Amino acid sequence: MKYLKQFTVILFFAFIGEALHFLLPLQIPASIYGLIVLFLFLYNKIILPEDIKETALFLIEIMPLFFIPSAAGLMRIWNLIAAICVPLTMIVVITTFAVIAVTGKAVQVVINFAKEKKDLQQTDACLFNTNVKFYGR
Amino acid sequence: MESALANSAVWGTLLTLSAYMAGLFMKNKSKMTVMNPLCIAIILVIAVLLVFHMDYEAYRSSSQYITCLLTPATVCLALPLYERLDLLKSKFNIVLGGILTGVLTCFAVVLALSGLFHLTHSMYVTLLLKSVTMAIGVAVVEQLGGYVPIAAAVIIVTGLLGNMFAESIFRICKIEDPVARGLALGTASHVIGTARAMELGQTEGAISSLAIVITGLVTVILVNAFAVLL
Question: Which ipTM did the prediction report?
Fold first, then answer.
């Protein structure tokens, strides 16, 4: 019964997403509308995590399964990409590695910078403290 | 025979589930990163359809009850997002800045290389969505007039590449911070990259699943501006 209730709540938000997708003229998928509306309901505590938790985590866990039918469609369009297979593979590989390296490095540099600044402030504070001690004596 | 299979709600679902279970089994047996259950399942389904000379459309319509769960499942990503709200709030600028950097890098590299290889507009918009989680990517590609099956394949390959090679890249580029690693994996390789991030550590996993959702949103907002460039 619990799972049925949770699944009903999730389907309700999925349906709200579809309704918004139908009504609004933006190129945003129904699932994203549903995600945002559900998040707002959670944030304002109208919906509690317990109302959806087990079913939601189950659906997220088996998510890869839902991609198999679309991905198997590759066999039908193989003749379409056979000619550009090499550039396509190159683009996918280069872009993926570039995104990982650039994103990771950029964040790492910012975090290192913030740390250095903090350390510097701490050393300043230490110096200040020793000064105080010195004068105090 | 074909129409009987196409009308069956069980056959396509059974084939999909069995293929995925076989993939999980092979992964657990071998413990190799190359053995990705999703990748194995796709190859198995295609192999079965080809060997028995079955029509893809029949399989597709027979497995529609699986595909229709994709929207509810994506909606559910609101839950991890909500549960990690504190983490997001405390590192908001870094998370958003990192994801923006990643999304723009992806767009810029795809634009440059698509121009270099003279790809068509449909192919270009298909590739723009490669780092986004499947549900969002497929839906947006459809609306922008790209190739949905290619998008699905490209998104999965992107995920697998991140899953398998991110750690080597982290080592070469000296990316050591858990937040940086989680952001890189989630932004570049969505759900499949997040699976690897979860193995690296708690913080990596949390930040990475956060990155899936925000990367999706940022990409959806920015992609229209980039789609007209080629």
Answer: 0.83
